[in-house]
């Protein structure tokens, strides 16, 4: 275990990296990934809760998606009109997203499981290594 202090945003990135390697063939990596994903899920619940769109926004998003699917070339005008008619809903969602961005910059300290670089499977790629860097021991 290693105590790591960094922003919630970096922990979200780590979670994405763990998710991206969960199907690779490595018992050690699977153990580390599973255990850390559990820790991260419980530690980042506030972000998840803060990012849940309102029912009204989801209904608006469904309408926007329907317009863009049925009229991809000329849908922008209809979408703009719909957004204008629902300014308050759109603005509340923008504010919500801004609040989540602020929450992502808060530091958090967690004890996470690590993996030695030699225990990483051959199939792991550079993008995954960048995301997992916080828990890789050289």
Could you please describe the fold and organization of this structure?
The protein is mainly alpha-helical and 138 residues long. Helices cover 64% and strands 12% of the residues. It contains seven helices and four strands, in the order βααααααββαβ. It has helices at residues 8-21, 27-43, 45-50, 55-70, 75-85, 87-104, 126-132, and strands at 2-7, 107-112, 115-116, 136-137. A two-stranded antiparallel sheet has the order 1-2. Strands 3-4 form a two-stranded parallel ribbon. Helix 7 (126-132) links the parallel strand 3 (115-116) and strand 4. The chain is elongated and about 55 Å long. The mean pLDDT is 93.
Explain briefly what this protein structure is.
The chain is mainly alpha-helical and 138 residues long.
